[in-house]
């Protein structure tokens, strides 16, 4: 059973945008709670140091992805959140790796090559109608991302063509990290706290499908139609 302070911390973590970038035992945009707890176990100053990082943000301890600042949190709240995170036990999944038996989907591209994806582009037996996830990604992209990256992921004047970024080797983890944490120096906002990690995963799937020319520009036909 958790102590009262840890219960309060768990509640605060759930109520804030932490799940946009963190998961319990898998690395997503940022490290898992288990990995954080393991790394800082036994360090006397961990609570103070990490509470400050939660409120002020920053990067360096877990790579180049910046921790989104949370200046509206009181120090006492940040300390409660960190106290709960440090109490999480277990062994983290290595790099958030996919399970060996994860289903894959093979698609033949217009250039004759074949690409294997870890998500379905089309509704089962209904191609070219896209899945609900890909359609939702289309809707989210063209509601929020198009202003800088161009309508239908065709590229814009303010930000790069994401189709090109993905064909040149940008991974899903990098895509998610940049989208959720942002790049303030380049004018890229942080979407953490506004869009969920699940929302941004759908955006990634839509843009990935566009980069492979599996989904045309414009409103794609959907299994919901």
Polypeptide structure, described:
Helix content is about 40%, strand content about 5%. It is mainly alpha-helical. The chain folds into two domains: about 5-95, Cytochrome Bc1 Complex, Chain D, domain 2 (Orthogonal Bundle); about 105-210, Cytochrome Bc1 Complex, Chain D, domain 2. It has a two-stranded antiparallel ribbon with strand order 1-2. β1 (about 105-110) and β2 form a beta hairpin. The longest helix is centred in the middle third of the chain and has 18 residues, at about 130-150.
CATH architecture of the largest domain: Orthogonal Bundle
Helix content: 40-55%
Number of helices: 8
Looking at the structure, the CATH topology of the largest domain is Cytochrome Bc1 Complex, Chain D, domain 2
For the biggest β-sheet, the strand order reads 1-2
- Count the E strands: 2
Q: DSSP strand (E) fraction?
A: under 5%
